Amino acid sequence: MAAILFFLLLLTICNAEAQQRQSTINLGSSLSPTTNSSWLSHSGLYAFGFCQQANGYAVGVFLAGIPQKTAVWTANRDDPPAPGDVTLNFTNDGRLVLQSAQGKETSIASPGGATSASMLDSGNFVLFNSKEIVWQTFDYPTDTILQGQHLSTGKELFSSISEYDKSTGLFRLAMQEDGNLVQYPVGTTDVEQYAYWSSQTYRDGDNVTLCLDVNGQLYLLNSTGTYLTNLTQGESPTKDIVYLMRLDADGSLRLYSYNLHQNGNLSVLWSSTNDMCLPKGLCGLNAFCVINDQQANCKCLPGFAAINQGNQSSGCERNFSVESCKSKDGSLKYTMEEVLNTEWVKNYFSHLSSISKEDCKAACLEDCNCEVAMFNAGECRKQNLPLRYGRRSLTDTNIAFVKVGIITANISTQIRIAQMGSEKKLRKDILIISISFVVFGIFMFVISGTAIYRNIIYKNRGRAYTRTSNNGYIGFSEDVAPQSFPYSDLESMTDGFKEELGRGAFGTVFKGTIQNGQKVVAVKRLEKLLAEGEREFETEMKVIGRTHHKNLLHLLGYCYDGEKRLLVYEYMSNGSLANILFTPEKQPCWDDRMEIARDIARGILYLHEECEPQIIHCDIKPHNILMDEYRCAKISDFGLAKLLKPDQTKTFTGIRGTKGYVAPEWHRRQPVTIKADVYSFGIVLLELICGRKCVDWDLPEEKAILEDWANHCFEAGDLDQLVTDEEVNKKQLERMVKVGLWCTLYEPSLRPSMKNDLHMLEGIIHVPIPPSPNSFVTTL
Ligand SMILES: *[C@@H]1O[C@H](CO)[C@@H](O)[C@H](O)[C@H]1NC(C)=O
Ligand SMILES: *[C@@H]1O[C@H](CO)[C@@H](O)[C@H](O)[C@H]1NC(C)=O
Ligand SMILES: *[C@@H]1O[C@H](CO)[C@@H](O)[C@H](O)[C@H]1NC(C)=O
Ligand SMILES: *[C@@H]1O[C@H](CO)[C@@H](O)[C@H](O)[C@H]1NC(C)=O
Ligand SMILES: *[C@@H]1O[C@H](CO)[C@@H](O)[C@H](O)[C@H]1NC(C)=O
Ligand SMILES: *[C@@H]1O[C@H](CO)[C@@H](O)[C@H](O)[C@H]1NC(C)=O
Ligand SMILES: *[C@@H]1O[C@H](CO)[C@@H](O)[C@H](O)[C@H]1NC(C)=O
Ligand SMILES: *[C@@H]1O[C@H](CO)[C@@H](O)[C@H](O)[C@H]1NC(C)=O
Ligand SMILES: *[C@@H]1O[C@H](CO)[C@@H](O)[C@H](O)[C@H]1NC(C)=O
Questions:
Q1: CA angle 659, 663, 666 (to 5 degrees)
Q2: Ligand 9 within 6 A of 413 CB?
Q3: What pLDDT is attached to residue 528?
């Protein structure tokens, strides 16, 4: 124990010896970790220079006047200088650079025109030109705000990994453009469901600033100087006390005071929360936080094991193999385990209401696509893994039922299989082109470290906090089998087929009402269908009627009456995706378009992997994707391809010779598999990315065919050309385009499965560079 303490002490040492008090630092000055290690401020309270860290050094500003030498600002925090010979130079041309013995240069600041530098007594390290400040550390806060410093609109603090490792940790504090000061986990967008603390000043004005005064008062100020809220009241000012606010590694925001005359005696004056489990993301995926001895501890779901024992935020993975759950002999391979009183991010695909606890449990056990069911007060929500941001909450009566494998065989193989999940097919595909596609291990949090989403976060801050997800939507109970209607009923329902809503490949759609006019429905009169026996039609309707997924249009009823075939669906008030995507005034923003893409992927995934028999849609296009009132996408017309006469499959796949949504194998008379849907999905994804139609001859020839144009831009490394007049985060854009290009590969076996597509879109797995289309296409 003593050894550990000693070790920790060593780690925090910022060399405060061998330093010079110097109010002005001239061009050509330099520091090294061993000799002249820092520049002190005039009073000696703050220093700029080297600080020893867990591995190597950090360069930054630290409180030199107290024994703890607390670091308050860190340069290049995620890229600290390697241990060994490094020099920090204030070069003759006014740049602040780190130079290694090997000659590697890392820039800290190069504002241009700086002629001197100074470590100020406020804790601000500044570079001046002959007239004014050209660069200052106060403009780039890391995890700390000092007294006199502020956090202005649009800026964020990121917590550190620990007190001894100042690289970016798990949490962030955003001063949003809507006036709200909000804490989120790193790597999320600014939406309410991810927030875990806020100042409750939403919409209290633009340009709101978080300020910390010299007396320790912490408050939010609007642009006309009005105090919006006082987080702390402040004390009577004294020179002996230094205040600082820090977003700590554990996710809590704290105001500290250091008493200089009591050997740096430290006290916590305020903190955003005392609940150690409140910060979301403390525990990784599939784990939940519990308080033990006033410490936050992470526990895995039953049937799961920690990915990395020493690292709680790495999360948990299944410790059993995931095989197809549809066993031939009918024996049970899985059981449901209960976890009481926990709270998670809601992300369900199917919702059943007025149901008993036992029925909820059984509903998930029988549904191969269901991995977890959340039961609360008669409501049952079926969910997929991973689960996020779990915590024990004794006031929450939620019961999580987790599907767990019963057979325990060879654990080492099982874990390997579990990691691969059901990706065997893709692995084979990927081997062909020998790209290592290390999937399941790479989770959201890996990405978060590099804060890929930072730019989008800035962009959306204005309105994003208000946006509630589709998940808040409670539909009518889904588990009602479709009803068979006599033709006369449908005639009266639609008032004699009076109001036509649209015309599709399969027939005409009319508006109707049921339940005495209370509920609006869409009635589809099928045409061009095989004059099939009633029995086959009814069988098909049962298959379609069994699909319960929030991204699939729900079939309420059907009618077969002589030659007549009609279907009754939920009515979608926002029309089709084609309608909103290709109408400039209605076009959703980037984030919403990407959510639509994920919704479509979820729906197709369900058709491919859960339905028995498997359903290939064959006609995925924006016209067949309907938008409900919450703009949640629902796929329609699935399961109908089977009902077509054989000669019509050709016409319905349509537009020969032009590139549309139709996979090339249709033209090649090759067998059509689920990968044809993946192709069509890829085209729709590219349309969502670019906000335009896949074929548009009004554009210059090279841009007319979106797929070719996207390939061209990707190979030229110029993706900005794909999006018009909208600021989109480059990394995210590239990621989405790559998924689109993978899906639209000419060779079906190379296209990823829908499951992998969804995981790539969700950022759960890495997206490799797609192969060039030309390397596979021989003749077209
Ligand atoms: C420390 O810096 C001062 C002024 O920049 C210089 O005179 C002195 O030689 C340096 N000491 C060492 C050991 O480099
Ligand atoms: C940086 O400092 C080192 C050591 O003082 C010196 O050898 C090197 O020339 C300096 N580089 C620049 C660009 O000033
Ligand atoms: C600042 O807040 C005050 C008081 O709520 C308000 O009257 C004023 O308009 C606000 N200023 C801005 C720019 O919103
Ligand atoms: C907020 O600040 C920005 C940049 O400093 C400025 O352009 C804008 O006019 C300010 N808005 C208000 C309402 O003060
Ligand atoms: C916040 O503090 C300021 C300055 O101390 C004071 O003028 C103001 O009334 C306080 N506001 C609230 C809401 O407490
Ligand atoms: C530190 O401050 C607290 C309260 O401010 C006081 O109770 C404690 O005795 C002080 N400790 C030392 C070592 O001065
Ligand atoms: C999986 O973990 C559970 C505890 O969560 C344990 O009871 C079970 O034996 C483990 N199974 C395997 C195969 O390791
Ligand atoms: C813990 O795991 C997370 C997620 O895998 C990773 O980002 C982080 O760097 C790890 N932390 C440490 C200290 O290894
Ligand atoms: C378990 O798997 C390992 C590695 O695949 C294999 O070497 C071993 O023989 C297996 N054991 C049993 C009992 O199947």
A1: 105
A2: yes
A3: 63
Classify residue 6: in a domain, yes or no. no
Per-residue DSSP letter, 327 = -
Domain CATH for 532: 3.30.200.20
Give 411-429 as a DSSP string. HHHHHHHHHHTT-HHHHHH
Please enumerate, by residue number, every residue annotated as part of a binding site for ATP.
Answer: 524
Q: Give the residue with greater pLDDT, 656 vs 712.
A: 712
Q: Where are the beta strands (DSSP E) in 494-652?
A: 500-503, 507-514, 519-526, 555-561, 564-570, 625-627, 633-635
pLDDT of residue 556: 87
Q: Tell me: do 540 and 591 sit in the same domain.
A: no
Taking residues 251-279, report their average pLDDT: 91
Nearest C-alpha to atom 5 of ligand 5 is from which residue? 233
727 lines ligand 4 (CB under 6 A): no
Does residue 691 belong to any structural domain of this protein?
yes
Instruction: Please give the distance, rounded to the nearest whole angstrom, from the Cα atom of residue 105 to the centre of ligand 1.
Output: 21
What are the structure tokens assigned to 13, written together? 């040492």
- Between 674-690 and 730-743, two packed helices, what is the crossing angle to 10 degrees? 150
pLDDT, one tens digit per residue, over 177-226 is 889 999 999 988 888 888 999 998 887 778 899 999 999 999 999 888 88
Using CA positions, which residue lies closest to atom 7 of ligand 7? 303
Same domain, 119 and 182: no
Give distance in angstroms: CA of 379 to centre of ligand 1.
72
The minimum-distance atom of ligand 5 relative to the CA of 234 is 5
For the CA of 404, the nearest ligand = 7
User: Residue 592 belongs to a domain with what CATH number?
Assistant: 1.10.510.10
Instruction: Tell how strand 57-63 and strand 218-221 pair up.
Output: unpaired
Q: Residues 110-162: pLDDT tens digits?
A: 998 899 999 999 999 999 988 889 999 999 999 999 999 999 999 999 999 98
Residue 708 annotated in active site: no
Q: Examine residue 61 and state whether it is found in any structural domain, yes or no.
A: yes
Report the percent of the chain where pLDDT is more than 70. 81
Q: For ligand 2, atom 10, which residue shows the shortest CA distance? A: 89
Tokens 């059907």 correspond to what residue?
558
Give the residue, by CA position, lying nearest to ligand 6 atom 9: 265
Residue of 201, 222, 230, 232 with the most ligand 5 atoms within 8 Å of its CB, for mutation: 230
What distance in Å separates the CA atoms of residue 671 and residue 521, rounded to the nearest whole number? 36
Domain carrying residue 131: 17-139
pLDDT digits (tens, 9 = 90+) for 52-98: 777 778 899 999 888 878 899 999 998 887 777 889 999 999 999 99
Q: Exactly one of 619, 628, 637, 677 is catalytic; which is it?
A: 619
Inter-axis angle of helices 754-762 and 730-743, nearest 10:
180
Say if ligand 6 is within 6 A of residue 261 CB. no
Do 612 and 746 belong together in one domain? yes
* Per-residue model confidence (pLDDT) at position 614: 80
